[in-house]
Amino acid sequence: MEYTIQKLGALAGVSTRTLRFYDEIGILKPARINSSGYRIYGGAEVDRLQQILFYRELGFSLERIKEIVTDPHFDGPRALKEHREQLLDRRRQLDALIANVNQTIAMHEGRMTMSDTQKFEGFKQKLVDDNEKKYGQEIREKYGDDTVNQSNRKLLNMTQEQYDEVTRLAAEVTETLAAAFQTGDPAGELAQKTAELHKRWISYYWPEYTKEAHAGVAQMYVDDERFKAYYDELQPGTAEFLRDAIHIYTGFKQE
């Protein structure tokens, strides 16, 4: 079946202005232009638009979506399966958060009791959601959906004792890194202690630890401006210092 731009927009719930923009940037071209000058879209374009909207819903940038859907090796059915897994994972996360809110309401109304561990489930969920919003796309592209989903589940399943420990470790990494930076020696005792603490911290999140992945994360702290700004906020050059310390610690320097 074929659609004019107006009919496709109405079908998909997007504006004709959006469809024209997609045409301009090359992410969704019409199948043809008819004799009256109207854009005409066919089945392939409908499928492409569906994929674009899926990726938009998952928070991908238009630039990244264009790279994906215009890749000559793009596999539509496989992409749909990946969309499904990500949406199911999001639903599980939202269900957990809703359940936590309902429990809290019931507790305040005197209908149930709630353990201290249960009270913090919502905060762990928020941490997962915030991380997904800020870094999810880059992390998933670098390490894959399975690894990220396992990491999220590991965080959500932490006991309160584990969550307290990982929070304490994060603070200790920051404190030790600041002291190590003042020495100027990424191979020094304090810097290597920082790398060890960082390893212990990330191990709470990762399905399994590898030196190669640890070195890769350290490099990302430098390459990604958001991570770099976070570490360099108090002292410029801290991200590079941490990267160098971890590369020395792991013995694995990324090229």
Describe the structure concisely for a colleague.
With 255 residues, the protein is mostly helical.
Structural notes for this entry:
Strand 2 (32-33) and strand 3 (39-41) form a beta hairpin. The chain has a three-stranded antiparallel beta sheet. The radius of gyration is 23 Å and the shape is globular. It is mostly helical and 255 residues long. It has three domains: 3-69, Multidrug-efflux Transporter Regulator, Chain: A, Domain 2, CATH 1.10.1660; 76-155, no CATH class; 159-250, Orthogonal Bundle (Globin-like). The termini are far apart. The chain has helices at residues 5-12, 16-25, 43-57, 62-69, 76-108, 116-119, 121-143, 145-156, 160-183, 189-203, 211-223, 225-231, 238-250; strands at 3-4, 32-33, 39-41.
